[in-house]
Amino acid sequence: MSCSVSRIAGGGSADINEYPFAAALLTNGGSGSYVQTCGGSIITANAILSAASCFHANGVLNPATWWRARVGSTNANSGGTIYIINRITAHENFSPTTFVNDIAVLRTNLNIALQPNLVAVASIAGGGYTYGVNQEVYAIGWGVTSNSNPTPSEQLQTAQVWLINQQTCQNRHSDSGFTVNDNMICAGWLDVGVRGQCAGDVGSPLLDSDGAVIGVFSRAQGCADLWYPDINTRVASYTRWIIGAALA
Questions:
Q1: Is 12 inside any structural domain?
Q2: Which structural domain range is residue 112 located in?
Q3: Of 4, 105, 224, 225, which has fewest CB within 10 angstroms of its CB?
Q4: How far is CA 39 from CA 141, 200, 227, in A?
Q5: What is the mean predicted confidence (pLDDT) over 188-211?
Q6: β-strands 35-44, 205-207: how paired?
Q7: How would residue 7 be classed by pLDDT, with cut points 50, 70 and 90?
Q8: Other residues' Cβ atoms within 10 Å of the Cβ of residue 36
Q9: Within a domain: residue 5?
Q10: Same domain, 128 and 230
């Protein structure tokens, strides 16, 4: 297991009826009770989009039996309906060291019972989606509010941030040794911080103003860092792969 429990930094509380496609991904790490660890987006009646890095430990994919998905609940660890995960398809070229191709699709054991305004299928960016610099986008997730506050929040959080120029993002990350490629998108509140994604939000969606999933949160330097933009997998680069994995 490779996700730490943390959430949107600088965000405000949200309700599941605003984001009915949001899924809290729970793990027991092989033993004990299931707790919210990562996030995802419902993309079909039995498939959830997330990040491959959520399900890797020491380069090995976690057993699907370690994982559950809670849907239809504003809260991370109560309410809604829990589904057993019976398959995890991580991108075949995912690298746990470079975070290249950090994308995965989970399959549930039963069809998810869709309910208007409570449990719904997300729209995802198509291959021709155009990403705009300084475009307003929205991050959602569960966990803690900041580096200094390790207490997880039960309630879903949301924060408005901005897409950041690719070259600027690479320049900022160059001193950390991290390489930003064209299949990634960068978001945050540059030189201000305060709002952003945190490590435990891995797999949670980055949304455009129409509510389409345009990114899957992959990694960050701390929470809402003012220098380093947050890294998301660019969904439009993987639309065909996502559909194939969801329908396989």
A1: no
A2: 22-122+238-247
A3: 4
A4: 6, 8, 25
A5: 86
A6: unpaired
A7: very low
A8: 26
A9: no
A10: yes
Give the E-state strand segments of the chain in sequence order. Answer: 12-13, 22-27, 35-44, 47-50, 56-57, 60-61, 67-71, 81-90, 104-108, 136-143, 153-164, 184-188, 205-207, 213-219, 230-234
- How confident is the model over 178-189, as a mean pLDDT? 96
Residues 203 and 134 in one domain: yes
8 A C-beta contact, residue 88 and residue 69: no
Asked whether residue 71 falls in the same domain as residue 82, the answer is yes
Q: Which of 12, 16, 83, 26 is nearest to 54 (CA)?
A: 26
**Other residues' Cβ atoms within 10 Å of the Cβ of residue 181:** 14
Kindly provide the b/e burial profile for residues 107-124, where b requires at least 16 CB atoms within 10 angstroms of the residue's own CB: bbeeebeeeeebbbebbb
Least reliable range by pLDDT among 10-24, 111-125, 139-153: 139-153
Q: Do 129 and 230 fall within a single domain?
A: yes
Distance CA 214, CA 111 (A): 24
Residue 17 lies in a domain: no
